[in-house]
Design goal:
membrane, transmembrane helix, mainly alpha, single chain, transmembrane
């Protein structure tokens, strides 16, 4: 019986995304801390745009969904790959709308492309390899 393999590059990307998704779960607390820093040192205020409550909620929910999907991908669940793809596309679109600059849009397009390539590769491996 041959064991399924994701590949080292995909595994590294998923682990890094998993770490950042876990950190994204603390968006509310990070925003509260940033507001306190801005009160203490107002010179940083010109470099920071505070998040709205809706942005905090959306960011936290997308982080949770992405983290759960990545855990599912490591367990080779087909539905998790589709959830990962959907979360990645939604995150990219949401990010591009929230930060509407040319360089940010290019970055989010690349992010969506990487998410699509990873999902396509994993689905192909899932169909061809049987554990």
């Amino acid at each position: 019986m041959e064991k399924r393999k994701r590949g080292i590059l995909i595994t590294i990307i998923l682990v890094i995304q998993g770490i950042f998704s876990f950190l994204g779960l603390s968006t509310y607390f990070n925003e509260q801390r940033m507001q306190q820093i801005l009160k203490d040192q107002p010179t940083f205020a010109q470099f920071y745009t505070p998040l709205t409550p809706m942005q905090i909620v959306i960011s936290t929910i997308l982080s949770l969904i992405t983290l759960v999907a990545i855990i599912g991908i490591f367990m080779w669940k087909k539905k998790a790959i589709y959830v990962y793809l959907a979360a990645g596309v939604i995150n990219g679109i949401y990010g591009a709308i929230a930060d509407f600059t040319a360089i940010a849009i290019i970055g989010y397009i690349i992010q969506i492309g990487i998410c699509v390539l990873i999902s396509k590769t994993l689905l192909k491996k899932l169909e061809t390899n049987i554990e």
